[in-house]
Design goal:
The protein is 37% helix and 21% strand. By secondary structure, the chain is an alpha/beta fold. β1 and β2 form a beta hairpin. α4 crosses α12 and α5 packs across α7. The N and C termini lie far apart (47 Å).
Length: 313
């Protein structure tokens, strides 16, 4: 069941049951950066990180015009199933944190499938994080207050980047904020199957198509946890975590399970399942009552993270 207000807003909205390779080009129209940033009091700077294979990864740094020294930072990874989107997709979400919390936002253009496969998207995202940490002083950010955040596929990549930083002794991450994250390539939970054979924002079929595009010929039992974080055997040693999803979201059950496993491993996580919310509801309809509540809860949590992490040595 959907939230009644969202149900009404969704009527007439273009929905699909399944994506095909032929549909991708028409769905990949680049975001209008000027339009996305219009009305926001931020300064924009372009930069690049370099992938292991030499590929230049575009980054955009968005600094509040009234930014103070040693500002907190949100490293943002966009959604789109790792097959769609760019660094300005869903940028309105972290821009709220730039304006209300004074956070510098850095957003990355990781490479998309099926043009690349395997761990390339998360490897690109990790290189972007390394660039942020290495340029912290130049960017005017506090290296103790870098939060990795993302929505949908970007939420899954944020989880993968956080695992990589832990395992590779990489940059210190104050927290990870995972908005309806895409965490499990197996696509076999009850919530995945509930949204098969029916149109939606993101369905069982679209999820299957996206994961097939990302994984290519990689055998299912060899999928690395960095690209499919639900496969991680060990969730100890992770920073404090925020996870949310809608109750009518394909990713609901894998997201709940991920938060539960962090608790079981002795970690700290805050979990919200928004009753009647579909996948990405607050990005699609930000003014809806449920969307306002979801965004406010994230901002409250993030403000607490920034306040606590600034006390670290």
């Amino acid at each position: 069941m959907l939230d009644p207000e969202l149900q009404e807003l969704l009527s007439g909205f273009p929905l699909v049951t399944e994506l095909t390779a032929e549909m991708l080009p028409m769905m990949r129209e680049p975001s209008d950066a000027d339009e996305a940033l219009a009305g926001h009091a931020v300064k924009r700077r372009e930069a690049t990180a370099v992938a292991a294979d030499g590929w230049e990864i575009p980054l955009t740094v968005l600094t509040p015009t009234d930014s103070e020294p040693d500002a907190p930072c949100v490293y943002w990874l966009h959604g789109g199933g790792m097959i769609l989107g760019d660094r300005f997709s869903q940028i309105a979400i972290p821009l709220e944190w730039a304006e209300s919390l004074g956070a510098v936002v850095v957003t990355a253009d990781y490479r998309l499938a099926p043009e690349v496969t395997g761990t390339t998207p998360v490897d690109d995202a990790y290189q972007g994080l390394l660039w942020v940490a290495e340029h912290a002083a130049e960017l005017g950010i506090d290296p103790n207050r870098i939060v990795v955040a993302g929505i949908s596929a970007g939420g899954g990549l944020a989880a993968g980047v956080t695992l990589m930083a832990r395992d590779l002794s990489g940059p210190s991450i104050a927290a990870q904020l995972l908005v309806c994250p895409m965490l499990d390539h197996r696509n076999n939970t009850a919530s995945s199957l509930q949204y098969a054979g029916r149109p939606g924002i993101w369905t069982y079929e679209t999820n299957r198509f996206a994961w097939n595009a990302v994984l290519g010929d990689l055998p299912a039992d060899e999928v690395p946890a960095y690209i499919s974080p639900a496969r991680a055997d060990d969730l100890t040693g992770l920073p404090t975590t925020y996870v949310d999803a809608g109750s009518a979201d394909v990713f609901r059950d894998e997201d709940v399970e991920y938060a539960s496993r962090i608790w079981a491993a002795g970690g700290q996580a805050e979990l919200h399942v928004w009753a009647g919310g579909f996948h990405g509801f607050d990005a699609v309809f930000p003014e809806a009552r449920l969307s306002v509540a979801a965004r406010a809860a994230r901002t409250r949590w993030l403000a607490g993270v920034f306040a606590c992490s600034c006390k670290l040595p």
